[in-house]
Amino acid sequence: MAFVTEPATVTFRLPLTTLIGVFGLIVCMTPVAFGVPGLQVLYLGPLALAVWLVRTRTVVGPETMVAYRVWGSRRIAWSDLAGLRIDDRSRVSAVLRAGDDVPLPTVRARDLPLLVALSHGRLPESLAESGERPASEQ
Known about the structure:
It is a single chain. The chain is an alpha+beta fold. 28% of the residues lie in helices and 29% in strands. It is built from 4 helices and 7 strands.
C-alpha cells in the first residue's frame, strides 16, 4: 500500500486571535458610536482592520509563492525568483529576475530558514544561517 502525501504548503499570517482585539475595540467604541447620530461610521475603522488581518498573508508552496494583499495578490513562481531582500525592519521582499521587488506580507527575517527549506534548493542555505540578526549595541 502506497501513501500519497501532499507537497508542503506553509501560510505566513498574523494570528487570527488578533481579531479578539478588534472585537474589543468595537465593544469599547459602541457607547461613543451611538452617543451622537452619524458616529456609527467609526465602525469602519475596526472593519477595515479586520479585513486587513484576514486577507494579508503569504502562502509558500512547492512551485509558487503567493503574496496576498487587501486588494489583490501576486503569484511568484520559484523560477522567476532572483533572490530575497531584507530591509532594516526585518521585512522580506522577493526580488524577481525582471527586477521587480514584491513585498512578502508577514514574512520576517526569522522565517528565512523555513523559506529555504520550502524552496527545495532554490534558495541558498546561507540565507538560513543569516536569518538571525545580531542584537544592536547600545
